[in-house]
Amino acid sequence: MEEEYNQLIRSNPDDFSLLTIRGLAQFYLNDFQGAIEDCSRAINIAPDQPWAYFIRGNANVNLGFYNQGLEDYNMALSIDDSLDKSYFNRGILKFLMGNPMEGCNDLWSSRDLGYDEAIDKTDKFCQ
């Protein structure tokens, strides 16, 4: 499958969608650096696409680059403030960074947007 993505991207080097999809695939394969690289390329091509920031944020957090992850989640939400998973992940990240009050605010936003996993976390940590 990886070679298929590579071939498609070689044929369409400016297709931000292909780069974002391959970045997501790399994220799920625990190739976080590869995910960051592909999403960064996608962002350079189409900086108004929130999912590339979201995926790159997840990869940054998994590598321990919390500030970069926070910036990416902020960018994703500045483009589309209805991304329930971005609020959720940013909320969890804020807990990790020692900001539980702000984390709860984001978890509540995620819950209000209908993200089921946020229900459990707000009930457990944000009462």
In a few lines, what is going on in this structure?
The chain is mainly α. It has eight helices and no strands.
If you had to describe this structure to a student in words, what would you say it looks like?
The chain is an all-alpha fold and 127 residues long. The protein has 2 domains: 1-65, Tetratricopeptide repeat domain (Serine Threonine Protein Phosphatase 5, Tetratricopeptide repeat, Alpha Horseshoe); 81-127, no CATH class. 79% of the residues lie in helices and 0% in strands. The protein contains 8 helices and no strands. α5 runs antiparallel to α6 (84-96), α6 runs antiparallel to α7 and α7 (100-112) runs antiparallel to α8 (116-125). The termini are far apart. The model has no long low-confidence stretch (mean pLDDT 93).
Task: List the topology elements.
Blueprint lengths: L1 H10 L4 H13 L3 H14 L4 H13 L3 H14 L4 H13 L3 H13 L3 H10 L2
